[in-house]
Specification:
Helix content: over 70%
Number of domains: 1
Structural class: mainly alpha
Order of helices and strands: HHHHH
Number of strands: 0
Largest sheet: none
Shape: flat
Number of helices: 5
CATH topology: Four Helix Bundle (Hemerythrin (Met), subunit A)
Radius of gyration: 17 Å
CATH superfamily: Flagellar protein FliS
CATH architecture: Up-down Bundle
Low-confidence stretches: none
Strand content: under 5%
């Protein structure tokens, strides 16, 4: 993103979302690999929380979008980052955990099941806390 590509609001001024995107981009470019994984976990968790709000408000399309975002982060970000060769059994267990999170998210969307969303969020929270503790310097 460049500053000239900022989304403009009324009066031609950049929106708060545009500034937020710049802040996120700056964080991503300056983050270590460990911090990037933590950011992905946080992003997936945020999408699940958003999905729960949409479920509670009976906003079906928005719920689906948020769940799809969470699934995409888990599948294309977190799971894709696992190095099976170096990680051995731990890598396999991590992949199984990611698959289980995706399964719960898909079931939550299919059945409008808040308990499955809660379970996916709980798993992401535990995973995030464990990751942050393990990568503390």
């Amino acid at each position: 993103m460049t500053y000239s590509a900022l989304r403009r609001g009324p009066g031609g001024r950049p929106t708060v979302q545009a500034y937020s995107n710049i802040g996120l981009e700056t964080k991503v470019f300056s983050a270590s690999p460990e911090e990037l994984i933590a950011m992905l976990i946080d992003g997936a968790r945020a999408a699940v929380i958003k999905a729960r709000l949409h479920l509670e408000n009976n906003q079906i399309a928005e719920r689906g979008e948020s769940i799809s975002k969470a699934i995409n982060i888990v599948e294309s970000g977190l799971k894709a980052a696992v190095n099976k060769e170096k990680g051995g059994d731990i890598a396999e267990q991590l992949i199984t955990t990611y698959d289980l999170i995706v399964y719960h998210l898909m079931q939550a969307n299919l059945h409008a099941d808040v308990e499955r969303l809660n379970l996916a969020e709980q798993m992401l929270t535990t995973l995030g806390d464990t990751w942050k503790e393990a990568t503390k310097k």
